[in-house]
Amino acid sequence: MSERSVNHEDSTIKKDEIIEQIANLFFEKGYDRTSIRDISKALGITNPGLYYYFKNKQEMLFEIINAMIEMALIDLREKVNLIQNPEEKICWIISSHINFYAEHRAQTKVLIHERNSLEGEYARIIKEKEAEYVNFFKEVMKEILQNHAVEININVATYCLLGMLNWAIHWYNPRGKVSPETFAANISKIFLNGLKG
């Protein structure tokens, strides 16, 4: 693909497509090892064309991570409170998390591996959104534990589950023998059995 300048009238390349390709580069090479030149070359656009969309590489990383977290939060805000049973809620959250990874593998890995590379206001915004995401887990944990006579620290339970889910990006292949639905069901069963004692 030959290099070209990009302006707001150029309909041949959309920002969403650019973000997805940059996410693939960050996933393959890592944020720190990916240069602006690497990005421009991979996209087939000039540096000025790239800077039409982004101020710098930090903003590129922020847009990838922010888009992923915001998509997940919108889903949680709209659907979690419609489910009455707390155990069904946590199963839905687990399934949503796994399916989200299955559909956005590169972006999810960038989010988990590279979010600490964000600085300043970008880092602050993402931390706030991460806190909201984690809070959904905590609130459901409280509901579950209220119904069972077990003493488990809410924070420990929450971060154990998040650890299980996030570590899966290192070994789980959604296109392998175990489907995302089966994988989510297994994690739900293992986690709930442990949580309820």
| Unreliable runs | 1-12
**Structural class computed from helices and strand pairing:** mainly alpha
CATH class placement of the largest domain: Mainly Alpha
The helix fraction, in percent, is over 70%
How many distinct beta strands?
0
The structural domain count equals 2
Terminal CA distance: 58 Å
Q: What is the CATH architecture annotation of the largest domain? A: Orthogonal Bundle
How many helical stretches?
9
Estimated radius of gyration: 19 Å
What does this structure look like?
The chain is an all-alpha fold and 197 residues long. The protein is 71% helix and 0% strand. The protein is elongated and about 60 Å long. The chain folds into 2 domains: 15-54, Arc Repressor Mutant, subunit A (Orthogonal Bundle); 58-196, Tetracycline Repressor, domain 2, CATH 1.10.357.10. The chain has helices spanning 15-29, 36-43, 47-53, 57-79, 86-103, 105-114, 120-146, 154-167, 180-196.
Write the layout of secondary structure elements.
Elements: H1 15-29, H2 36-43, H3 47-53, H4 57-79, H5 86-103, H6 105-114, H7 120-146, H8 154-167, H9 180-196
Structure keywords:
9 helices, Tetracycline Repressor, domain 2, disordered N terminus, Arc Repressor Mutant, subunit A
